[in-house]
Amino acid sequence: MAAQTQIVWFKRDLRVEDHAPLRLAAEAGPVLPVYIIEPDYWALPDTSGRHYDFLLETLDELSQQLCALGAPLVVKTGEARDVLSALFAAYPDCRLLSHEETGNQWTYQRDIAVGALAREAGVEWLEVPPGGVIRRMKSRNGWAARWDKDRAGPVSGAPAFCGVDWPADPIPDAEQLGLKADACPQRQTGGRAAGLNALNSFLTERGAPYRKAMSAPDAAARHCSRISPYLALGSLSMREVAQAGWARQAEIETAGQRGGWSGAMRSFMSRLHWRDHFMQKLEDEPEIEWRDMHPGLEGLRPRSADPERLDAWERGETGVPFIDACMRCLNQTGWMNFRMRAMLVSFASYHLWQPWQATGERLARLFTDYEPGIHWSQVQMQSGTTGVNSIRIYNPVKQGLDQDPDVRFIRRWLPELEPVPADFIHEVWRWPGFEAALEGRYPRPVVDVMQAAREARERVFAARKQPGFKDASRRVLARHGSRAPMRRRSNPPPQAKPDNQLQLDL
Ligand SMILES: Cc1cc2nc3c(=O)[nH]c(=O)nc-3n(C[C@H](O)[C@H](O)[C@H](O)COP(=O)(O)OP(=O)(O)OC[C@H]3O[C@@H](n4cnc5c(N)ncnc54)[C@H](O)[C@@H]3O)c2cc1C
With the CA atoms of 385, 391, 395 and 400 taken in that order, what torsion angle do they form, in degrees rounded to the nearest 10? Predict the structure, then answer.
């Protein structure tokens, strides 16, 4: 009897190492590795040309690796249901294997449709949990201990397999998918080799000043790991990253290595926890992609965005130099450090009083590392709609003074401010020479920074005083809050306790 064909559906797990579906498939029969480019997905407002370019680079490398193991990757274009349906018809005795995916609403619905198709066709779909994020989790208790146990589990190597032939489709270019031109000249390169390079150079050379450097945009770009886009598309697995981190920690301890390494590695390992902790929220409540996490904050901001304000924000033309420099940097590089991402959201959500859904979509398109689970949880947190975190309204002038004291970052990204003396640059609108030197070249600020923050604070305070607010906060916390054991190996995540603090970053 011929062995059952094993269709391995690659999604956001674009690697051959530590890939349980591929390993299980290789052990069971001939393997057909497939990736589906889904035009409807690429029409979504949270996708972009830079995502697609990064994906194509990643697929190219993956295909070469698969080819060396048994057969190249078969890239198909179309609706997943149609592509898989054709495969099921061609290989009636087949099994579908993939990882569980915690993606956006669209991929969630698509997986439901594929599940129904597989059932109708009588095909088994083995969805392997990726570990770290737990489907249908009953309670958050014990989550961190499970994380440690899973991440310490065996990392399987790339398996050789017997390949199955199936004609691939020509790969559409971004324009054919209807994606807008999206030049991102300093974007990170896709693929596993680049991911491993980022991880290794961080662990052995770049990481020592991580803790101090992570807050300032320039230093962070050099000293943060920069592995996020590789984790987002799965060309690196979280298990192998965690184990590389633990191994490095052990090495540092044994060697008594100084120079910041020990603290850097503790902070890094905490953040790996945070990633899955945030993704777990979306897995547990997919609606947080569009609905306020705290029901008492629904309708706090207008539902529709002011496109003019958001365009100015996205282009880096708000007239607030540090915001604009960060935005222009993000446009060109596809990456920004955590603090500045938080500040950009805070500015749009509080100062500009825009709905976080619209802001979040625009940022999602700009981040090469867009990961819905982290992204929507963070966007809500930085917009104050979780109801359980202390609220922080970042003052962009203070952030500029703290994180870019020598104004090198602003000068690089806003060359039109070249004539402005350094002492005035963070509040350029106060510079007496503004009119003569900058009128028509750089905008006046779209809002009064201090006044807008005060008004936002008052609105948020009023909403949080509504009856029943605290009870609802407790329910959000019970569902999504981290539990104490998470602190064993790492620092507490930033949303550990319920509190009604409002922090104005004056
Ligand atoms: C509004 C907002 C949106 C964000 N959207 C995304 C997103 O779409 N994709 C994404 O990967 N990260 C997102 N982050 C989290 C964080 O900013 C990035 O993970 C980090 O800057 C990526 O750079 P790095 O790989 O050098 O991180 P490092 O500092 O080197 O950290 C290593 C890894 O830990 C994880 N991590 C780090 N910080 C956090 C955090 N605060 N929360 C959760 N996980 C974290 C990431 O997987 C990261 O790659 C967002 C943060 C904010 C405030």
Answer: -90
